[in-house]
Structures are given as structure tokens and as C-alpha cells.
From TrEMBL:
Its main location: cytoplasm. This is 4-hydroxy-tetrahydrodipicolinate reductase. GO terms for molecular function: 4-hydroxy-tetrahydrodipicolinate reductase. It catalyses: (S)-2,3,4,5-tetrahydrodipicolinate + NAD(+) + H2O = (2S,4S)-4-hydroxy-2,3,4,5-tetrahydrodipicolinate + NADH + H(+); (S)-2,3,4,5-tetrahydrodipicolinate + NADP(+) + H2O = (2S,4S)-4-hydroxy-2,3,4,5-tetrahydrodipicolinate + NADPH + H(+). Signal peptide: none annotated.
Length: 248
């Protein structure tokens, strides 16, 4: 059984993961880290440095500010870290990649199996469609989400960008008066209500449109993927891993 320290255990996603883990015979939450108090069946610490419970991996669903302490703890205990948080700066992303030289590191902007299957599809079709199609991405989330565009929108956008040999530019929104350039990918963020997460990629050509859409009905979809990632990371050597490895 994979023993997990859950960072952000009392947040919305943390509670969903805890509930699913209780029904999972392969994964056990042995400790949590959170500044907020709640009723938990495992010991909870205010910061990761205080945790004295043996574990196999750290699962992080918190905020980017926790990055340094998680990497430090992972190195100290020689255990892997699964980063599911979004909103990292470019400097922080580089830190995550550097950490993979010494410990196993897993990072994904979206833990949904469905989103990551779509991401693999985009790698195949983007190069085929780009010449004759304009590409736009629309993402929708609840009104409490802090970062925009979403990490998932950037994940999909970068997958398309890296599949095309031409230089591609991201355009966030369409403010101003000018025609779009063909080598642009427009990314549009909507923040309202309690939307869990919707992502739509539009390929619009002359007389035809292809739309690929994913809708998260509940947060459980991310929790399922996170627990699968925990199973995947058990016993891994140092290196950088993602949901591509899990679904492959």
C-alpha cells in the first residue's frame, strides 16, 4: 500500500481525495498538512517540516507558496512529490524540474484522465490541422479560482504549440481592434459561479469547425487521477513524470 502525505488536506480537493482514498485498497493517507483545522482520521501538521510520519510520496493540492518546503522535505526524506497545484511562475517550474535530478517528481496541470487523453490527441491532430484552421481555447472555472488562464488551458496550448514547427503566440482575450494573426492561439478565461472546470479547443477552418471539449462534472475526476499518480510514483527513481506516463 502506498503511504501518502496529503498537503492541503482540508481544502476542497483535499477532502475529496481523502474520501476516495478511504475506499481505495492501494493508497492510504497517513498524514496531512494544512493551516486550517478539521476532523481527520490521520495526524495533521501546520507545515510539512513538522511531519514525522513515514510515507512513500507527498501529494500536493495547495498553493504555489508551498513549493520550496515540499522540495526540501522530499530531499530530506528521499521521497517523491506529486505536484497538482497550478499557478506556478516560470522560476518555480524550473525549481520543480531541477528537483527531479535528486528525487522522483510528478507534475501535471490537470489530473483528469480525460483531459490528458485529449492532450495526447492534440499532439497528433494539431500539426495536421494548423495550416487550414485557426485555433482558440476557452476555459471556464468557478469564481474563486485565482490564476488565469488556467494551468490546463496552458497545458493544452503548449501541446499544440510544440506540435507545430512555426512560431506560435498565445493571445489572452481579444481586447483591441485588429485582425487575428494565423500563428496565434487565443486563450479565453471565464470565472463565474461554481463551475468545476470546462476546457474547449476550437479548430475553425473555411466552412468547417472541429471542437474538442472536456467538462469536469465533479472534483472527483481530479482525485481519481491523483490517487492513480500516487500508485504510479510508488518506488520510482529520481526523474520527472507526468500524467502522460500514467495513461501510457
Amino acid at each position: 500500500m502506498v503511504r501518502v502525505i496529503l498537503n492541503g488536506c482540508n481544502g476542497k480537493m483535499g477532502k475529496v481525495i481523502t474520501g476516495l482514498a478511504e475506499k481505495n485498497s492501494e493508497v492510504s493517507i497517513v498524514a496531512g498538512v494544512d493551516k486550517n483545522s478539521a476532523e481527520n482520521k490521520f495526524p495533521v501538521f501546520h507545515n510539512i517540516g513538522e511531519c514525522d510520519v513515514d510515507a512513500d510520496v507527498i501529494l500536493d493540492f495547495s498553493r504555489p507558496e508551498a513549493l520550496d518546503s515540499l522540495i526540501e522535505y522530499g530531499n530530506k526524506k528521499n521521497i517523491g512529490v506529486i505536484f497538482c497545484t497550478t499557478g506556478y511562475s516560470e522560476q518555480q517550474i524550473n525549481k520543480i524540474k531541477e528537483a527531479s535530478n535528486s528525487i522522483p517528481i510528478f507534475r501535471s496541470a490537470n489530473m483528469s484522465i480525460g483531459i490528458n487523453v485529449i492532450n495526447k490527441v492534440l499532439k497528433d491532430i494539431s500539426v495536421l490541422l494548423y495550416k487550414n484552421f485557426d485555433i482558440e481555447i476557452i476555459e471556464k472555472h468557478h469564481n474563486q479560482k485565482v490564476d488565469a488562464p488556467s494551468g490546463t488551458a496552458l497545458l493544452l496550448g503548449n501541446t499544440i504549440k510544440n506540435s507545430i514547427s512555426e512560431d506560435i503566440n498565445f493571445v489572452n482575450g481579444r481586447e483591441g481592434i485588429r485582425k487575428r494573426a494565423h500563428n496565434e492561439i487565443g486563450i479565453h478565461a471565464v470565472r463565474c459561479g461554481s463551475i468545476v472546470g470546462e476546457h474547449e479547443v476550437i479548430f475553425a477552418g473555411q466552412g468547417e469547425t472541429i471542437e474538442i471539449k472536456h467538462t469536469a462534472i465533479s472534483r472527483e475526476v481530479f482525485a481519481v487521477g491523483a490517487l492513480k499518480a500516487c500508485e504510479f510514483m510508488y518506488g520510482r527513481k529520481s526523474g520527472f513524470y507526468s500524467m502522460d506516463d500514467v495513461i501510457s
